[in-house]
Amino acid sequence: MGDINYKHATILLVEDDDIDAMSVERAFKKLRIVNPIIRAKDGIIALELLKNGTVTKPYIMLLDLNMPRMSGLELLIELRKDEDLKNSIVFVLTTSKDDEDKIAAYDQNIAGYIIKEKLQHGFDELVKLLDHYWRLVELPER
Q1: Residues facing residue 123 across a β-bridge
Q2: How far is residue 99's CA from residue 4's CA, in Å, rounded to a whole number?
Q3: Whole-structure pTM over 0.85, yes or no?
Q4: How many Cα atoms occupy the beta-carbon half-sphere of 136 within 13 Å?
Protein backbone atom coordinates (compact mmCIF):
# COMPACT_ATOMS: atom_id res chain seq x y z
CA MET A 1 0.00 0.00 0.00
CA GLY A 2 2.82 2.39 -0.68
CA ASP A 3 4.73 1.48 2.49
CA ILE A 4 8.19 1.90 0.96
CA ASN A 5 10.07 1.26 4.21
CA TYR A 6 7.65 -1.35 5.52
CA LYS A 7 9.35 -4.53 6.71
CA HIS A 8 7.39 -7.63 7.59
CA ALA A 9 7.80 -8.90 11.13
CA THR A 10 8.81 -12.53 11.42
CA ILE A 11 6.39 -14.64 13.43
CA LEU A 12 7.90 -17.08 15.90
CA LEU A 13 5.12 -19.53 16.66
CA VAL A 14 5.97 -21.47 19.82
CA GLU A 15 3.31 -24.16 19.83
CA ASP A 16 3.50 -27.90 20.51
CA ASP A 17 0.04 -28.69 19.10
CA ASP A 18 0.31 -29.50 15.38
CA ILE A 19 -3.35 -28.73 14.67
CA ASP A 20 -3.21 -25.28 16.30
CA ALA A 21 0.05 -24.52 14.49
CA MET A 22 -1.45 -25.53 11.14
CA SER A 23 -4.55 -23.45 11.89
CA VAL A 24 -2.46 -20.34 12.53
CA GLU A 25 -0.42 -20.90 9.36
CA ARG A 26 -3.61 -21.50 7.36
CA ALA A 27 -5.12 -18.22 8.66
CA PHE A 28 -2.04 -16.30 7.47
CA LYS A 29 -2.35 -17.85 4.00
CA LYS A 30 -6.12 -17.31 3.84
CA LEU A 31 -5.72 -13.62 4.64
CA ARG A 32 -2.78 -13.35 2.23
CA ILE A 33 -0.38 -12.18 4.90
CA VAL A 34 3.11 -13.07 3.85
CA ASN A 35 5.09 -12.65 7.06
CA PRO A 36 7.64 -15.41 7.50
CA ILE A 37 6.54 -17.94 10.12
CA ILE A 38 9.04 -20.01 12.07
CA ARG A 39 7.68 -22.68 14.39
CA ALA A 40 9.22 -24.09 17.53
CA LYS A 41 7.53 -27.00 19.31
CA ASP A 42 8.72 -25.94 22.76
CA GLY A 43 10.53 -23.23 24.67
CA ILE A 44 13.96 -24.86 24.43
CA ILE A 45 13.81 -24.91 20.62
CA ALA A 46 12.48 -21.34 20.54
CA LEU A 47 15.35 -20.13 22.71
CA GLU A 48 17.87 -21.88 20.45
CA LEU A 49 16.33 -20.31 17.32
CA LEU A 50 16.47 -16.85 18.89
CA LYS A 51 20.02 -17.19 20.17
CA ASN A 52 21.46 -18.63 16.93
CA GLY A 53 19.93 -15.90 14.76
CA THR A 54 17.44 -18.08 12.86
CA VAL A 55 14.67 -15.68 13.86
CA THR A 56 15.52 -12.24 12.51
CA LYS A 57 14.28 -8.95 13.93
CA PRO A 58 11.79 -7.55 13.95
CA TYR A 59 9.78 -10.50 15.21
CA ILE A 60 6.67 -11.19 17.21
CA MET A 61 6.34 -14.35 19.24
CA LEU A 62 3.06 -16.24 19.60
CA LEU A 63 3.57 -18.34 22.70
CA ASP A 64 1.60 -21.28 24.04
CA LEU A 65 1.95 -21.71 27.80
CA ASN A 66 1.44 -25.45 28.20
CA MET A 67 4.31 -27.22 26.46
CA PRO A 68 6.69 -30.05 27.27
CA ARG A 69 10.34 -29.55 28.32
CA MET A 70 10.09 -25.76 28.81
CA SER A 71 6.73 -24.10 29.35
CA GLY A 72 5.76 -20.75 27.93
CA LEU A 73 6.16 -19.04 31.31
CA GLU A 74 9.62 -20.57 31.75
CA LEU A 75 10.58 -19.29 28.30
CA LEU A 76 9.29 -15.80 29.15
CA ILE A 77 11.46 -15.72 32.28
CA GLU A 78 14.52 -16.76 30.24
CA LEU A 79 13.80 -14.11 27.59
CA ARG A 80 13.52 -11.31 30.11
CA LYS A 81 16.83 -12.33 31.77
CA ASP A 82 18.71 -12.28 28.45
CA GLU A 83 20.15 -8.88 27.48
CA ASP A 84 19.68 -9.55 23.74
CA LEU A 85 16.16 -10.99 24.00
CA LYS A 86 14.58 -9.07 26.86
CA ASN A 87 12.65 -6.71 24.55
CA SER A 88 10.99 -9.57 22.61
CA ILE A 89 7.37 -8.83 21.76
CA VAL A 90 5.31 -11.76 22.96
CA PHE A 91 1.61 -12.53 22.67
CA VAL A 92 0.50 -15.48 24.74
CA LEU A 93 -1.85 -17.75 22.78
CA THR A 94 -3.21 -20.41 25.12
CA THR A 95 -6.11 -22.48 26.38
CA SER A 96 -5.41 -21.41 29.98
CA LYS A 97 -8.03 -19.13 31.52
CA ASP A 98 -6.28 -19.31 34.89
CA ASP A 99 -5.82 -15.88 36.49
CA GLU A 100 -2.47 -16.97 37.95
CA ASP A 101 -1.20 -17.73 34.43
CA LYS A 102 -2.43 -14.35 33.17
CA ILE A 103 -0.79 -12.48 36.04
CA ALA A 104 2.46 -14.43 35.68
CA ALA A 105 2.53 -13.74 31.92
CA TYR A 106 1.79 -10.02 32.28
CA ASP A 107 4.45 -9.84 35.00
CA GLN A 108 6.87 -10.82 32.21
CA ASN A 109 5.74 -7.85 30.09
CA ILE A 110 3.77 -9.63 27.39
CA ALA A 111 1.94 -7.62 24.73
CA GLY A 112 -1.30 -9.55 25.14
CA TYR A 113 -2.95 -12.71 26.49
CA ILE A 114 -5.24 -14.43 24.01
CA ILE A 115 -7.36 -17.46 24.87
CA LYS A 116 -7.68 -19.79 21.89
CA GLU A 117 -11.32 -20.68 22.38
CA LYS A 118 -12.33 -17.00 22.38
CA LEU A 119 -11.22 -16.79 18.76
CA GLN A 120 -14.69 -17.50 17.39
CA HIS A 121 -13.70 -17.40 13.73
CA GLY A 122 -10.63 -19.56 14.07
CA PHE A 123 -7.30 -17.82 14.03
CA ASP A 124 -8.36 -15.21 11.44
CA GLU A 125 -9.08 -12.66 14.19
CA LEU A 126 -5.64 -13.19 15.68
CA VAL A 127 -3.90 -12.76 12.34
CA LYS A 128 -5.86 -9.56 11.64
CA LEU A 129 -4.90 -8.22 15.08
CA LEU A 130 -1.22 -8.96 14.44
CA ASP A 131 -1.35 -7.44 10.97
CA HIS A 132 -2.69 -4.17 12.40
CA TYR A 133 -0.26 -4.31 15.30
CA TRP A 134 2.96 -4.50 13.29
CA ARG A 135 1.73 -1.96 10.77
CA LEU A 136 0.94 0.63 13.46
CA VAL A 137 3.47 -0.10 16.18
CA GLU A 138 7.16 0.62 15.70
CA LEU A 139 9.15 -2.56 16.30
CA PRO A 140 12.83 -2.55 17.27
CA GLU A 141 15.16 -3.66 14.49
CA ARG A 142 17.94 -4.71 16.87
Answers
A1: none
A2: 42
A3: yes
A4: 6
